[in-house]
Design a protein that fits this description.
The protein has helices spanning 3-59, 65-86, 90-110, 118-137. With 145 residues, the protein is an all-alpha fold. The protein has one domain.
Length: 145
């Protein structure tokens, strides 16, 4: 066979491979963004807890440790209640889904359907299913914008 007869198949394979690479990046990026949203919230709670422990330690050395501990506890409870409202990772989850959906939209708009092989279509389907399932479980309800 000559090189000429192989070029269309190679072009189709290259196109499918490029779609797969972009899909994999979008898929991995979605789950990394979920992790980042969760970890950001967890770090903020950990930091608050550590500050509370330092404040309680300092309170134990005050002239009236019971009163100082009571004040520390009241401050901590107020800060914890505020953090529960502010550190909600659901906004990060929704943003991760929006980013994934936008990437997939662009990817599909650029992809030439005749160059997508069965395996690539299966990967697209699998990624969409996995991401949609996670988004539904995380109570994503619509675009953030």
């Amino acid at each position: 066979m000559s090189d000429e007869s192989q070029r269309p198949a190679d072009a189709a394979g290259d196109a499918a491979n490029e779609v797969y690479k972009q899909l994999e990046a979008a898929h991995s990026g979605y789950f990394q963004d979920l992790q980042t949203a969760w970890m950001d919230a967890q770090h903020r709670f950990r930091d608050l807890q550590m500050q509370f422990e330092r404040d309680m330690d300092a309170a134990s050395r005050e002239a009236d440790p019971n009163e100082a501990a009571k004040n520390v506890m009241e401050k901590y409870q107020g800060e914890y209640a505020n953090l529960m409202k502010e550190a909600d990772p659901s906004k990060g989850y929704a943003a991760a889904f929006d980013k994934y959906r936008s990437t997939i939209k662009d990817l599909m708009a650029k992809a030439e359907a005749e160059h997508l092989d069965v395996a690539t279509v299966m990967h697209i389907s699998s990624s969409l299913n996995a991401v949609a399932t996670h988004a539904a479980v995380l109570n994503w309800s619509g675009p953030t914008t």
